[in-house]
Every structure is written in C-alpha cells, then in structure tokens.
Design goal:
Radius of gyration: 18 Å
Largest sheet: 6 strands, parallel
Structural class: alpha/beta
Helix content: 40-55%
Strand order of the largest sheet: 4-3-1-2-9-10
Strand content: 15-25%
Low-confidence stretches: none
Order of helices and strands: EHEHEHHEHEHHEHHEHEHEHE
Mean pLDDT: 92
Distance between the termini: 35 Å
C-alpha cells in the first residue's frame, strides 16, 4: 500500500471560489480529508501580473505541503494558466490544475465546436484555454471574454443580484452573438453564478462547470497513482485556512459548501525564494 494514501488532499484558491471545487471533490471522494487554503488577503488573482500569480501560487503550495498533503490541486484558473509548470518543476508531489479538465469537458459537450470561455483578465490573456482546446480538436472555434467584475460580486455574495444579471448580459452578449453552444465557466468563482448565467445564456448553451470536471479528473488521476484512501470509512474532514477575514469565510462556506467543515484558521503564508 502506498504510505501516502491516508494523507489529505490540498486545494488552494485566491478566495472562496475554490469552495466550489471542494464541494465537488467531497461529493466524488467523500472519504478523503481535504485541506483548503483561501488566499482571501490577496483576492483576486485574476487582475495580477503573471509573475505575481506564480509567486502567490508557490507560497500557497508551500503552505499546503507543510500540512503534509499527498497532492495539491490549484483550484484557480489563473494559476492553472500561468503557474502550473513552475509548480510541477519546483515541488515534488502530484500537482493538478482545473484548466485541462475544463477543456476536455467542453469538447465532450459541444456539437457545433463553437466554444465560449469566460474568465479573469489574466486567464483570458494567457490564451491557455484556446491552446488546450485546439490541441485536442483543431476544428473548434474558441471565443473568450474577460469578466473582471464577477469575482468581486461573488465575494460580496451578490450571486443573484439585479446588478450582477445586468453585468452578465453585457459580458455574455458578444459570445452569444458568435453562436456558441458551450460556455466554459473559466473561474472557480463562476459556478456560484450558474443560475444567473443560465438565465442570460439560455438553456440551449451548455455550461461547463470547472469544479465538476476537475473533481472527476482528480479522482481518475489519484486512482491511477494509487493515492486514494483505502481503509477510511468515516466522512472526510474539511479543514479550511484563510489569510484574512475568518468570520466572513465561515459564513460563506456554510452557504456554498453544503457540508460541515472545521473552523477556518487564519494563517500567514511562507515566503518562497
């Protein structure tokens, strides 16, 4: 038996958005212990420069490794777009992102091969989704739109606010005019807006929830690496850490996780050279 199987899975994101990934992983792998780091002091990552994103991602990963995790999942599309190669090179344990699972799921859903992407400005600027999709199907047409206002709205809890719906219409209209039949929610905050997005995009546009596709992807990868827990029968424990706003995080996690967690703990992140 792999001696690391009973260690927790580490997950990080810039704020509460990664809780959508935690929720899906807990549903797909209910006996796995999860350690979540929300870098709430520095949210959002999607407006930062690539170099800053890489530095933050290294600090987040180093913190999770100190919690003795068996793998790290970067539950952040911006990190997956810019920092994953650095993380894989720098740290000696399996590290995954959310971008490849989302690209694969989009290609499975689309019929017209016209795929829309919404994400942070930094994720869209990277064109990582374009490359991931076209590398798997060069007949696809990919149209992307940066949506910088959505993360603050989610963090504020305005997931069904009139202002949010107005902003979504402005962001999605250019993509809908392109005739997309599939829309990738290219930020882990965006599944919290799924109902509002569906109201704007309509039922004929398939939504790709990066959290759902990522949880299925992670399960397959951990199975192939013989890293899934073997003997645990109790429900997995979810231990959150945040870099700021502990009380607010606890309130939002109860609303969005639909699963009990340990109380969030405030931490300072290590500096990584």
């Amino acid at each position: 038996m792999n001696s690391n199987t009973e260690l927790p899975i580490g997950i990080f994101d810039s704020g509460i958005g990664g809780l959508t990934v935690v929720r899906q992983i807990h549903r797909v792998l209910p006996h796995e212990d999860l350690v979540y780091l929300g870098d709430t002091a520095r949210v959002p990552y999607g407006t930062k420069s690539p170099g800053t994103v890489v530095r933050f991602a290294c600090e987040d990963t180093q913190f999770l490794i100190r919690q003795k995790v068996k793998t790290v999942l970067a539950a952040c599309n911006t990190v997956s777009a810019w920092a994953l190669p650095t993380l894989e090179r720098k740290f000696d344990l399996p590290i995954f992102g959310v971008l490849i699972p989302g690209a694969q799921a989009a290609l499975e859903k689309t019929k017209s091969r016209r795929i829309g992407i919404i994400g942070t400005a930094t994720t869209v600027r990277s064109q990582a989704y374009h490359r991931a999709i076209l590398a798997r199907d060069d007949s696809a047409r990919v149209f992307a739109r940066a949506c910088p206002l959505l993360v603050p709205l989610v963090e504020e809890g305005w997931t069904n606010h009139r202002v949010t719906r107005m902003i979504l219409r402005a962001y999605l209209s250019p993509l809908l005019r392109r005739g997309i039949d599939t829309l990738v929610l290219g930020c882990t905050h965006y599944p919290l807006l799924k109902n509002a997005i569906r109201g704007v995009a309509g039922r004929e546009v398939a939504l790709v929830d990066s959290a759902e596709s990522c949880a299925r992807f992670l399960k397959k990868r951990l199975q192939s690496a013989d890293l899934l827990t073997k003997s645990r029968r109790r429900p997995g424990v979810i231990q959150p850490f945040v870099t700021d706003e502990v009380e607010r995080f606890d309130q939002l996690s109860r609303r969005f996780l639909s699963a009990p967690t340990e109380p969030a703990r405030k931490v300072d992140l290590p500096t990584v050279p």
